[in-house]
Amino acid sequence: MRVVGLGDRVRIRYIGTLDNGRIFDSTDDHVPLSLVVGSGTVFPAIESALLGMRVGEAKNLLIPAAEAYGPRLEENQLTLRRDQLPCGRQPKLGERLRLSLANGEILEMRVLHLNAEAVVLDGNHPLAGLDLTFALTVDAID
Q: What is the spatial distance between Cα 75 and Cα 123, in angstroms, rounded to a whole number?
């Protein structure tokens, strides 16, 4: 029986969970994810885990935070005075804001804290600092 190799197009199903059991992502029951192993479409640890698997085979995989979205970094947080926000802008806790930098780069940040004087924005990925567990199943090797 054929096994997954580097460069193979595969269709997989997965459920991604956090340590507390919360599902953060999964394939739809009817539509598996199609990818080429080695193309960088998914985390390298997932690509490595797929190598050697057969159709119908399942595997659980723990990806430490450092190999997923990295650690939560304090330097990815930004505190702005309320008067630095666009005129009349009243952000809400948890809201995602897009900021345009002077160099043309656009940052998407989440409102982490609010008070009367300032807003603290967080540019970390929502899953940064968290270990991720994936339950993988190979549906097909094309």
A: 9
